From TrEMBL, chain A:
Listed PROSITE patterns: GLUE
Family: Belongs to the VPS36 family.
Gene Ontology terms describing biological process: protein transport to vacuole involved in ubiquitin-dependent protein catabolic process via the multivesicular body sorting pathway
Organism per entry: Cinara cedri
Gene3D superfamilies given in the database record: 6.10.140.260, Pleckstrin-homology domain (PH domain)/Phosphotyrosine-binding domain (PTB) (2.30.29.30), Winged helix-like DNA-binding domain superfamily/Winged helix DNA-binding domain (1.10.10.10)
Protein name: Vacuolar protein-sorting-associated protein 36
Signal peptide, first to last residue: none
TrEMBL record, chain B:
Protein name: Vacuolar protein-sorting-associated protein 25
Entry GO terms, CC: ESCRT II complex
Top-level taxon: Eukaryota
Localisation: Cytoplasm
GO molecular function terms listed in the Swiss-Prot or TrEMBL record: DNA binding; protein homodimerization activity; structural molecule activity
Listed GO biological process terms: protein transport to vacuole involved in ubiquitin-dependent protein catabolic process via the multivesicular body sorting pathway
Amino acid sequence: MDRFEYAKLDPAETVICGHKNVTLYDGDYKTSFHRGNIILTATRFFWTLGEAWLSLQLRYIVYIECTVTDTLFGSKIKTIVIHLLPSDNTNPGPVACVTGNYIKLDFKDKVPEGFFDVFQKTIGEKKWLIGKIPHHIRTGIGGIEKNIYEKQKASDVSITDAFKDLDRLMITAKDMVMISKNISEKIKEKQGAISDDETVRFKSYLLGLGVDDPVTRSSFTDSNSYYTTLCKEIIKIIQVSLDEVGGTMALAEVYCRVNRARGLDLLSPEDLMHACFMMNSDTSSPIKLKQFDSGVLALQSSMCEESVVLKKIVEALKISGSLSAQELSTSIGVSVLLAKEYLLTAEKNGKSCRDESIEGLKFYLNKFLEEN
Amino acid sequence: MGEVQWPWQYSFPPFFTIQPNLETRKKQLDAWRSLVLDYCRLHKIFIIDVREGEHLPLFNNTAISRKLSPQAINTVLEVLLSTGNAGMVDKSSRSRWYVYWHTVDEWATIVYKWAQDNAMVNTVCTFYELTNSSGDLNGLDEGILVKALKVLEKRQLAEILTLDSGSGVKFFS
């Protein structure tokens, strides 16, 4: 009887059959579970009376047999003996101690027609194993691999889900750009209606939205023409700001500005670099990619002559006496990286000389060469 | 012993950093060369130890807190070496250098002239007599003196002798 536990019928379980007036025997001894109902499902056997529910997992059953009882009116089958495996049950049940390896079901009159066969068949099917089978297989390396694969699949699905919204946003954003284009055209037509000042301001907002029709890789079949077109776009975007900063701009800054202008369909650093390399093969390009000796890449306007830069550095050195890259960058408004390149270029041309000390690297006018 | 007339470069911070630009570096090292020779002549310094370099005001301008690093001192001394104005004391280590503000040949000439002027030709005199005489030879490092005398030996104008009380030399006419 210790294989029994307190458990109610799960609504998800399918009832195979049920009968009334059954008394449970623990071994040969009659128990207090008298004349209740029994229910058989695919994995469990229930005995219930009123509020009391007992369940026996079918996996404990080794085999069942009928016993014949002799009565005054001849013999009839009234009892089913159920032989059981030892218990490994940890759930609470009506009996805790082991008394025997079998229990008996005693029917009031006789075992209903066909119940024994159905019971036998249910045990034979071993439905309780089905849920467990995959777990048994999932051991060892194969199991681990399968586990990982399933986890990846799950995260794939969630990532795709997460970016679905973004895709929609991209589609809408394209429309937004279209609308802004339309508005700016309309404004052009109705130039008189609003003041010039407002128009200019509004236009600058719209331009801030970025490039109308960004060059994307998907619209090209071969990467060479993609880069050539991209290169033209970059020149268009960067030319004005390049002149503003004095003709030279480090590639990192170019990257930020170009992607800021595109807003969407951002470029990868590699694509940008490849496109910039195209500038040097095109002789008519107003902007060139320049590699400094240290390997720093920068875009340089063709107007921006080295001699002009050198003159500027010499001027700055004359004013302040000595300059670190940091100081030069603030005084002429370029990045520190470029300022350093300028100073090194000046040094290479004999216009400046260096002073390395605990205070850092500083540059002075090259008095060594000047004196003579 | 007068004070050194420091050149303008001495208070110019980049002077204490070896310049990477070749043209600039040449000018810089030229300036270093003449400064080192002037300084050593004035202070009668015959040997410079690179590791001790920063204790010399020559290589350490405390006024602008700049000093020449040991590697840079070596670079400067190599320039001196190339013009015959320096030599390694010990060939195996590059840390101790002779500074020849007169080249060894010049020293040889000076020694022989001293011998002629003091009527020492065809006589033996000790190193002590030479290095304690008045004039240019006063305080001359013995190592350099030997080198100079060896030059005279080659010219067959002198011969180094080993005496009981130290080394000596005999001058020939």
